[in-house]
Each structure stands twice: as structure tokens, then as C-alpha cells.
Amino acid sequence: MQPVVAGDHNIDEDDGTEQKIALSKIIRHEDYGIYEMSNDISLLQFSKPLIFNEYVTPISLQSIKGYLGDCVVSGWGTAEGGQISSKLRYVEIPTMTDTQCGVSYGQDNVEESDICAGFPEGGKGACLDDAGGPLVCGGLLTGIMSFSWGCGLPDAPAVFTEVAYYKEWVEAHAQ
Prior knowledge:
Layout: E1 4-6, E2 19-21, E3 23-28, E4 42-46, E5 60-61, E6 70-75, E7 89-96, H1 98-105, E8 114-117, E9 134-137, E10 140-147, E11 158-162, H2 167-173
Parallel strand pairs: 5-10
Antiparallel strand pairs: 1-2, 3-4, 6-7, 6-9, 7-8, 8-11, 9-10, 10-11
């Protein structure tokens, strides 16, 4: 299995802050649907614990379902010009209701277990290559990037797996 790297900011340089850890197990949701992108959540079990410091910190899970407010999404997704960014990037974007999100993707394609974020007018947002990355709201892990149409396009918010919806599943399988 591919190792996980925590504490990295620039994937093209070794800053000395990185922790490379082998995975011992991937726990995929038992009802994951690859075509529907339903139950799009997995847990990664490391072969040894991370060492928490100023570059690697734990995060608590969001408990509020349907959180509305400004959040931060981060990742190394596609930058201007279609290139993958070598530096970790982030942007603050607002979440929206499932009904608002359904206007873009169709009401039947936005599940209760999804949370969407982005500006209706576009301009900033998560990119497809940010999939698996965090949506952090009020210092809590609120979403895990699932999919989007492009990067910050008008009327095309990013769709995240809503962590609060899966909190009991995470806690049950994180032992």
C-alpha cells in the first residue's frame, strides 16, 4: 500500500516536517457505491502512530448535520493552467443546503449524507484532484471531498461526504 505523508506543505521539497507512515489497513464503508458516490468514506489505519507537533495535529469530528457557514477546504488540486499544485492550497467557501446543491446536480443525486460548498457565482472552490481532502468548519472536520465539476465553476459546488452523518460509523470502526 502507498504510504501516507503527514505534515507536508510542498510536495516537491523535503521540508523536514513530513512524517511518512505505511498503511496497515484501509477500512472502506461496507455500502460504498462507486458509481453513485454513496457512502464515500474510508478510514486509514497506520502501521504506527503519528507524532503530533506544530505541523501534524488531530482534528475533532463535526456533530452538526447540515452545517451552514464558512469553511476551509485544502488540497494539492489542479491550479490555474491545469497543473497539480506542488504547494498545499486552501480557500474559504460557504456551505449550502442540500436543496441548493440539488439545483446543480439534481435533487436525486444529492444525498442526505452529502454536504456541498462553493460560491454560486464560482471563482473559488475545491477541485476534483482535491478528492479525499478535508472541509473544516469552525475547527471541526465537517466534510471529505467526494466530487465536483471542475474547479470553482458557477453553479457547480463541490460535494463532500458529510462527516456528522458518519460519526457513529467512524467511531465504531476506528478501534
